[in-house]
């Protein structure tokens, strides 16, 4: 991954406000990354100063090895989980100027689980 993409991913993650969450896919789409896995890689390798707790899997769950701490940090920001899942319809970040109808297909469409 080139440095420019790395920094774009970091910048989008920094923009996710407290009290909201985004998925790895949201961050990939907004930063122009070709895969959500690259977002995870940036967080794993260089995410110590980022609000990593605000980034979830597509189904609203945290990574299993981080679940307890991540949900605890989110709860402190006012994001409540139902068990191990955050309700993306309620807490998902919707950046200004990017609505479901004019954003990338599926970015803010949450499948019923």
UniProtKB/TrEMBL annotation:
Organism domain of life: Bacteria
GO BP of this protein: DNA repair
Keyword RNA-binding recorded: no
Methylated-DNA-[protein]-cysteine S-methyltransferase DNA binding domain location: 5-79
Keywords: DNA damage
InterPro entries xrefs: ATL_DNA_repair, MethylDNA_cys_MeTrfase_DNA-bd, MethylDNA_cys_MeTrfase_DNAb, WH-like_DNA-bd_sf
GO molecular function, one term: catalytic activity
Identification of the protein by name: MGMT family protein
Annotated organism of origin: Amycolatopsis carbonis
Phylogenetic placement of the source organism: Bacteria, Bacillati, Actinomycetota, Actinomycetes, Pseudonocardiales
């Amino acid at each position: 991954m080139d440095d420019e993409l790395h920094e774009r991913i970091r910048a989008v993650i920094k923009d996710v406000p407290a009290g909201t969450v985004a998925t790895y896919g949201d961050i990939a789409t907004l930063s122009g990354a070709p895969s959500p896995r690259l977002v995870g890689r940036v967080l794993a390798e260089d995410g110590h100063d980022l609000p990593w707790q605000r980034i979830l899997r597509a189904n609203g769950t945290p990574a299993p090895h981080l679940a307890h701490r991540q949900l605890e940090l989110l709860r402190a920001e006012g994001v409540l989980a139902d068990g191990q899942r955050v309700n993306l319809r309620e807490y998902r970040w919707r950046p200004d100027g990017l609505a479901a109808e004019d954003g990338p297909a599926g970015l803010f469409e949450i499948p019923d689980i």
